[in-house]
Design goal:
126 residues, four-stranded mixed beta sheet
């Protein structure tokens, strides 16, 4: 067997693919495609152009807990934001349904959030 490439798609399990896809499409400026058990967010411009985030229904989904050894995050997404836009990006993420898990307190260059399905992600200073 010869694996020749890694598909350029990040896939997140979740209980409601359409709802989570809408969150990320609005947060990142993409568009949703599909419905039902598999929904994708694609990007036509910017630094995410050509990338795809997919959201698949997972029955019995149990969200990760951060920080937690028993229900670890296993992965998280980092999104870069210019320093002068970090506060505005945070407000937008929170308005869309994210939950702040750890702010930077003026001491770090990143802030940790949970998306509406419980996946951790960070807004990082670019």
């Amino acid at each position: 067997m010869a694996i020749t490439a890694l598909r350029d798609v990040v896939v997140l399990d979740c209980p409601e693919p359409g709802k989570l896809a809408d969150f990320y499409a609005r947060l990142l400026g993409g568009r949703t495609e599909g419905e039902g058990r598999w929904v994708e967010v694609t990007f036509d411009s910017g630094s995410l152009k050509g990338r795809t985030f997919a959201f698949q229904e997972a029955r019995g989904y149990v969200p990760p807990q951060w920080p937690s050894a028993e229900r670890s995050q296993q992965f998280h997404l980092d999104f870069y934001v210019p320093r002068e836009e970090l506060d505005a990006a945070e407000r937008e993420a929170l308005e869309l349904g994210a939950e702040l898990l750890r702010g930077d307190g003026g001491e770090r260059d990143f802030r940790v959030y949970r998306d509406p399905a419980g996946h951790p992600f960070c807004l990082c200073v670019d």
